[in-house]
Each structure stands twice: as structure tokens, then as C-alpha cells.
Amino acid sequence: MMQIRTEIQFSLFLVNKPGVLAQITKALAAQKVNIVAMTLVDSQEHGVLRVVSDDANKTRQVLAQLNLPMNETEVLCLELSNQPGSLADVATLLGQNHININYAYCTGGAPGGKTSGILKVADLNKARHVLKAPAAKHKEPAGRRSGQRR
To answer: Are residues 87 and 64 in the same domain?
Structure first.
């Protein structure tokens, strides 16, 4: 069964220069905040760091002290099997139900283990409902048939 929860994602707008990511991650580590998932995308002017942590309140306090431009967004955090087709199944189900995925990123996971998928969707409540429906819970990974081993 896939675990689905809503988390707060912090988006920080950073100048592109050495040491900025280190400053942020060091400040979080000093306060014992664990990063669940993150992505950093750059443009010529700035970078956008998106972070989901294990403690949104502590993260908010740490980032406020760094005085960086940021905003908060509710995102879906899914526990996925780390195997081919896991994310495809979720994307297909959301697409079939006309729920747009604005962006997504995943953590690395151990082979055969679990990974976290972070999805920013157009309709959070509808996405949660669709993904928690009984049919979604028992869906096999794409391309896998009963009894087939990988």
C-alpha cells in the first residue's frame, strides 16, 4: 500500500555562487532538521531550491534566520517502490482523473527499497482522494503481471 501525506515544501530563491547551498544545509543540520527530499534548479539569474523536511516548523525558523526570499507550498509526498513503473502508475492515475502535475521530483532509494516522490499538483484534495481509492492501493506496477518476478 502506498503511503500518501501532505507536506510543506519550502522554495528558496538563491544567488548562484559557491557556498550558498552549504550555508543552508549546514544551518538545517545544526538544528537537527532532516531533509526528506530536495531539488535545486538554476537559471542564469538565480537558483530555486525546493526542500521538504521532517519538521516544517523548525525548517521555517531556520530559513527565516537566513533571511532568504522563500515561499511555502503544500505538496504530496508519496512513498513509492523503487522499481520501474512506480511513478508512471501514479502519473497515469492522476492524468486519467484530469489532475495536472505542475512538477515532481523523487529521492534516490536503494534497489528494491522505497523512495519518496514529491508532487505539486493542481488539485491537492482530488489527488489525495484518487490515490487513496481502493483501486489505486492494489494496482500492480506497470508491466508486471501476477506471479512474474523481476
So the answer is: no
Task: Examine the domain organization and report whether 79 and 114 are in the same domain.
Answer: yes
Q: Which of 35, 50, 73 is the last residue of a domain?
A: 73
Question: How is 91-129 classified by DSSP, letter by letter?
Answer: HHHHHHTT--EEEEEE----TTSEEEEEEEES-HHHHHH
* pLDDT tens track for 104-131: 998 877 666 888 899 999 999 999 999 9
Question: What does the block give as the cell for 3?
Answer: 503511503
Both 65 and 84 in one domain: the answer is no
Taking alpha carbons only, the member of 86, 73, 85, 79 closest to residue 122 is: 73
Q: What is the per-residue pLDDT across 28-59, written as a single tens digit (0 to 9) for each?
A: 999 999 999 999 998 777 889 999 999 999 99
pTM here is 0.82
Q: Does residue 16 belong to any structural domain of this protein?
A: yes
**% of the chain at pLDDT higher than 70:** 87
Q: What is the pLDDT of residue 17?
A: 84
